[in-house]
Specification:
- 39% of the residues lie in helices and 12% in strands.
- By secondary structure, the chain is of the alpha/beta class.
- It has a single domain, classed as TIM Barrel (Alpha-Beta Barrel).
- Strand 9, helix 15 and strand 10 form a beta-alpha-beta unit.
- The termini are close together.
- This is 6-phospho-beta-glucosidase.
- GO terms for molecular function: 6-phospho-beta-glucosidase activity.
- One of its GO terms (biological process) is carbohydrate catabolic process.
- Belongs to the glycosyl hydrolase 1 family.
Length: 475
């Protein structure tokens, strides 16, 4: 197996999970700033009526400091360069640029910070891959406007991306619009910046918010092409190939219906430029009515993405009638336990072949270049007495997934890059924990708030360095 020449090897992060500096540089509060750490976070993400208020006596808020990339970015980028990164996926915190989100003029301190980060990356020959919106909706837009349910956010987002493209047009070629856009119906708080009014209204509100994001994404693509000739602007999906539990046609049909709504609906809109016909019946049966303005569908058609990026952590197994005991514990997007798969420490099922399936499904459907921009193993790491971290379990996980990518390339898939998630330990998005570690670089920070923030190289650091230098041949 050979990966293409100029394949973009690297790592991926998000501003709210590693930057810290939550009150510095003129930054305003965003969603992640009010999400507490620990198991309670997932409960808040899933339920209706979250009030967006902090209770520092009851909870910790690890995103406030995260791993302090805000002050340590030079040190971290030097470590990425030592591994040989060709690309670094990061996000821009919207509330660093527009602290409230609806201002007319941006915050210069925030813009200057990212100038410094991009300059440091280029100094080391690393290409930035920038996610414009990665679970970082400014808190004011959530509390004052109701998040992406409100059409006004399209206007605010257009102003935001116009500033970004003009400011960084000579520094950033690769952009992603919305992180894991299709996950919004499961966790609207993350992607759409609102807590559903009720379980009964969740789908209506979520799909309306998604429509606003489709329009905003298309506007961003059109603007990016105008302002930055030669730019490449992609979408970003969370992808989980959906298997039927068995060969019962009822279960096969159920898996098909669930899988295409989750995996393909957003992709069809952003890549093909139109709502797929299969969604009409789903909207009808769930009493979903999308309010559109004149010209929305034309905008969506004109603003299709240049490439498709996605996260891959797990597959999903579906059964039409399932008992609570059959539900897969830990799997973010539901489904039943797959008897053929093992799971991580957090219950996420491990399925490298699913990544090959995902790549083939996406490429067969869209014939657009693909990039895997999140993939990794969250695990407990142990620091030995001599300071080493022997994370062979992580190496095994990544090796198997990279092999699956190589098989997909052999299958004819146009795969242009791979950025392993959490290339440096950071705060988990789903659980708000430091102890759920993904990185090649260990950060001395713990769930109780203790730690020096000192960085050290894990065994996987040196392994990934060899993977990159051999262009995936040395695994």
């Amino acid at each position: 197996m050979k990966f293409p020449e100029n394949f973009l090897w690297g790592g991926a992060t998000a501003a709210n999970q590693l930057e810290g500096g939550y009150h510095e540089g003129g930054k305003g509060p965003n969603l992640a700033d009010v999400l507490p750490g620990g198991k309670v976070r997932m409960k808040l993400l899933s339920q209706s009526g979250f009030d967006y208020e902090m209770d520092t006596e009851k909870y910790t808020y690890p995103n406030h400091e995260a791993i302090d990339f805000y002050h340590r970015y030079k040190e971290d980028i030097a470590l990425f360069a030592e591994m040989g990164f060709k690309v670094f996926r990061m996000s821009i915190a919207w509330s660093r640029i527009f602290p409230k989100g609806d201002e007319l003029e941006p915050n210069e301190e925030g813009l200057a910070f990212y100038d410094r980060v991009f300059d440091e990356l280029h100094k080391h020959g690393i290409e930035p891959l920038v996610t414009i919106a990665h679970y970082e909706t400014p808190l004011h837009l959530i509390k004052e406007y109701g998040g992406w349910k409100n059409r006004k956010l399209v206007e605010f987002f257009e102003r935001y991306v116009t500033v970004l493209f003009n400011r960084y047009k000579d520094k950033v070629k690769y952009w992603l619009t919305f992180n894991e856009i299709n996950g919004a119906t499961h966790f609207p708080l993350f992607g759409l910046g609102f807590s559903a009014t009720s379980d009964e209204t969740r789908l209506q509100e979520s799909f309306q918010g998604l429509h606003h994001q489709f329009v905003a994404s298309a506007i961003a693509v059109k603007l990016g092409h105008q302002i930055i000739p030669g730019s490449q602007i992609g979408n970003m999906l969370i992808y989980a190939p959906t298997y039927s539990y068995d060969s019962n046609p009822e279960n096969v049909m159920h898996a098909l219906e669930d899988g295409r709504i989750f995996n393909f609906f957003c992709g069809d809109v952003q890549v093909r430029g139109e709502y797929p016909t299969f969604i009409n019946r789903y909207f009808k049966e769930n009493d979903i009515q999308i309010e559109m303005e004149e010209g929305d569908l034309d905008t969506i058609k004109e603003g299709t993405v240049d490439f498709i990026s996605f996260s891959y952590y797990m597959s999903r197994t579906e059964k039409k009638e399932k008992t609570p005991e059959e539900v897969g514990e830990g799997n973010l997007i539901g489904g039943v336990k797959n008897p053929f798969l093992k799971a991580s420490d957090w219950g996420w099922e491990i399925d490298p072949t699913g990544l090959r399936i995902a790549l083939n499904e996406l490429y067969d459907r869209y014939q657009k270049p693909l990039m895997v921009v999140e993939n990794g193993l969250g695990a407990y790491d142990k620091v030995e007495e001599d300071g080493t971290i022997n994370d062979d379990y992580r190496i095994d996980y990544l090796r198997d997934h990279i092999k699956a990518m190589g098989e997909a390339v052999e299958d004819g898939v146009d795969l242009i890059g791979y950025t392993s998630w959490g290339c440096i330990d950071l705060v988990s998005a789903s659980s708000g924990e430091y102890s759920k570690r993904y990185g090649f670089i260990y950060v001395d920070k713990h769930d109780d708030g203790s730690g020096t923030l000192e960085r050290s190289r894990k065994k996987s650091f040196f392994w990934y360095k060899d993977v990159i230098s051999s262009n995936g041949e040395k695994l």
